[in-house]
């Protein structure tokens, strides 16, 4: 069995010497397309054994054993020859593989994977070394495949410190907590409309794998696990993630989920469960906003995704969504209309505020988990503030959030009670508000309360972003109070 614990270190050490690799994001992308081809070769061996008439979509010269495998006899391509093959033959061939409507998903993913993939390395000898490290993985060994899944998770975790690439990764503790409390069932269809690296779908699959499943059930689960990802890099990560977790034909689409008219969706387009962390802080162009009803159009990406969820969640379906504070306290007409629609059409039963550093160092914006089901309109909503665990000032790359840190919330979830804040008189760590109280408060959902945290030194960009967030929250509260005063004055004048 390969020592997988040292695999990532070996690859990093090799790539540091290549002039074409600039930063963690490029290093990870380079690893992923090579790893994908290694995993895909193992899958093809299985399909060939199980099916009499299996035909590979890959030309013979582009299959793993033809160009990547080194049998130790000195015949493997390396140096300029390897670079010329990868850049001049492998990539152009894989990008232009013929695909029709009849092409099976497990084969159609190959050209889609390489449509915008990049080969960054400039030293063919170093590229050979990288390929050899990945080739050493024994994918016929069950324990090694399982270990590779853990190694892959470590690769994805590194994205949080890889600049803007951090937006693609939601900490596994968060995805597991959300999947646990949405209660997956093998008979259900689940979706993530901005799936990034596929983390939510993997948490869903792992939860189901704890139940006894037949091979037919596992295949059915794969067909009912659906994702959409707009950007090429995370799409590649998600496809490989699905393959590593036993899904031979990943139902992951490379595209933008916001470019279809939401009014065109029918019950056939709906899902039993929806799990996602929509991109936030982005702004959509008018042509994208035009796919939404006029009163629900917003340039804020996260708001549009929440509207999309409301149109694509089945009756009696359940959803768990990560949203920033800006949605909770926002009081412009569109945000208020979206919140009204959410509370009118769904039961928003729980809002969990996460500690500010959960997504650090990518962002320090405070985020919240919204849990709702499409059963009835909201009558009351529970709010719970998850504080930093004892002994932590903040989460970091070396001390990331763990699933166990949700333990206080797990315990509270089963036996909900109001919890006064021990440090601030009149404040609450957990409380419940009626629909009428929320409406009277100007549809403000920012009711979780802020924990007392030690001061943290932020970068200039993060400082400005945090300032804007606090200013927006204050403005929202001021506007709400002014509206109440104006209403009282109006009543007095009458």
Which terms summarize this structure?
494 residues, ten-stranded mixed sheet, alpha/beta
How far is the first residue's CA from the last residue's CA? Answer: 83 Å
Summarize the helix and strand pattern as letters.
HHHHHHHHEHHEHEEHHEHHEEEHEEHH
What's the total number of strands? Answer: 10
| Major sheet size, sense and barrel closure | 10 strands, mixed
The strand order across the widest sheet is 3-2-1-4-5-7-6-8-10-9
Low-confidence regions: 452-457
- Helix share bin: 40-55%
Query: Structural class, from helix and strand content?
Result: alpha/beta
How big is the Rg?
Answer: 25 Å
| Percent of residues in beta strands | 5-15%
Helical run tally: 18
Mean pLDDT: 88
Overall form: elongated
Describe the structure.
- This protein has 494 residues and is of the alpha/beta class.
- Helices cover 45% and strands 12% of the residues.
- The chain has helices spanning 7-15, 24-50, 64-67, 79-95, 105-114, 124-135, 142-157, 172-182, 199-209, 215-223, 232-244, 286-289, 301-312, 325-329, 333-345, 407-414, 435-440, 460-493, and strands at 190-192, 225-229, 251-254, 271-276, 313-324, 347-353, 367-373, 380-385, 419-420, 428-434.
- It has a 10-stranded mixed beta sheet, sandwiched between helices.
- Helix 11 links the parallel strand 2 (225-229) and strand 3.
- The longest helix is centred in the last third of the chain and has 34 residues, at 460-493.
- It is elongated and about 85 Å long.
- Residues 452-457 have low confidence and may be disordered.
């Amino acid at each position: 069995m390969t020592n997988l614990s040292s695999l990532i270190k070996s690859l990093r050490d090799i790539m540091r010497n290549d002039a074409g690799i600039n930063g963690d994001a490029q290093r990870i992308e380079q690893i992923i397309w090579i790893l994908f081809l290694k995993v895909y070769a193992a899958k093809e061996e299985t399909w060939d054994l199980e099916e009499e008439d299996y035909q590979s979509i890959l030309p013979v010269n582009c299959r793993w054993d033809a160009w990547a495998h080194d049998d130790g006899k000195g015949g493997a391509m390396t140096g300029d020859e390897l670079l010329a093959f990868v850049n001049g033959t492998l990539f152009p061939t894989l990008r232009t593989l013929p695909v029709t409507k009849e092409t099976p998903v497990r084969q159609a993913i190959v050209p889609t994977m390489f449509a915008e993939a990049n080969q960054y390395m400039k030293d063919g000898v170093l590229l050979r070394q990288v390929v050899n490290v990945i080739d050493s993985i024994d994918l016929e060994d069950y324990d090694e495949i399982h270990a590779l899944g853990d190694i892959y998770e470590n690769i994805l975790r590194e994205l949080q410190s890889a600049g803007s690439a951090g937006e693609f990764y939601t900490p596994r503790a968060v995805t597991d907590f959300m999947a646990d409390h949405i209660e997956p069932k093998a008979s259900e269809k689940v979706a993530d409309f901005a799936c990034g690296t596929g983390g939510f779908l993997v948490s869903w699959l792992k939860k189901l794998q704890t139940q006894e499943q037949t091979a037919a059930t596992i295949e059915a689960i794969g067909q009912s696990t659906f994702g959409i990802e707009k950007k090429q890099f995370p799409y590649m990560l998600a496809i490989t993630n699905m393959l590593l977790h036993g899904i031979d034909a990943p139902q992951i689409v490379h595209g933008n989920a916001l470019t279809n008219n939401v009014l065109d969706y029918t019950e056939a387009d709906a899902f039993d469960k929806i799990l996602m962390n929509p991109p936030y802080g982005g702004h959509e162009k008018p042509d994208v906003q035009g796919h939404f009803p006029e009163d629900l159009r917003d340039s804020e990406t996260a708001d549009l995704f929440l509207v999309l969820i409301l149109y694509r969640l089945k009756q009696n379906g359940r959803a768990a969504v990560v949203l920033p504070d800006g949605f909770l306290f926002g009081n412009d007409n569109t945000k208020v209309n979206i919140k009204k629609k959410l509370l009118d059409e769904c039961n928003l039963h729980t809002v969990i505020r996460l500690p500010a550093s959960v997504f650090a160092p990518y962002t320090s914006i405070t985020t919240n988990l919204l849990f709702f089901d499409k059963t009835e309109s909201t009558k009351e909503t529970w709010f719970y503030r998850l504080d930093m665990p004892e002994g932590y000032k903040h989460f970091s790359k070396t001390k990331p959030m763990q699933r166990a840190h949700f333990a206080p919330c797990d315990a509270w979830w089963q036996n909900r009670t109001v919890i006064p804040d021990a440090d601030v008189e009149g404040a609450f760590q957990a409380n419940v508000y009626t629909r009428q109280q929320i409406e009277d408060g100007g549809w403000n959902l920012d009711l979780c309360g802020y924990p007392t945290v030690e001061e943290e030194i932020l970068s200039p960009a993060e400082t400005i972003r945090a300032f804007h967030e606090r200013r927006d929250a204050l403005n929202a509260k001021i506007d709400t109070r002014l509206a109440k005063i104006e209403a009282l004055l109006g009543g007095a004048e009458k």
